[in-house]
Fold:
Amino acid sequence: MKKLISLLAIALFVMTSCEKVEESNFDDNQLKAINTSIDFDGKDNMKYRLSFIDYKPFNGLNKDVKFKLVKVEDTKEFTVKDYIIKMDPRMAGEEMGNHSSEGNIDPKYNKVDGLYHATISYSMGGNWTLNFIIKNNKNKIIAGSSVNCIHGSEVCDVNSKSTVALEVDVPN
Ligand SMILES: [Cu+2]
Structure:
């Protein structure tokens, strides 16, 4: 019960701090990620969190985008080193047809800062979904799923997303 109350308190805190972010006036150079982190369960029964670090998305080639990947135990976070992250940026929905973009480079672990660095290519402004597949250092899938949409094919679920995804609102 105590745990539930503290969880509720955390949720309330997160909700109120999110509202604060929304109240402030964005300009095009500020953070426009819709969700800045995602919590997910690994197939190894561990809890994980993937987060953006100081991210300011813009229309074009976003180089050196940093992600933090941690294991979460109670309220503690532990840096996850040398995992393999596959990233598939897409624009989901009927209008965009879940198209991808060219020039993306998967997030790669950097031992200097302990973060994962990626290049993300936004070929237009709008709502992008970053779909992830997380593999451990033995190349075994820990979480995430492929987007069910083959490029240039009729086989495409326009709303298909990975179970591990971050949403970004890219200014025009
Ligand atoms: Cu598009």
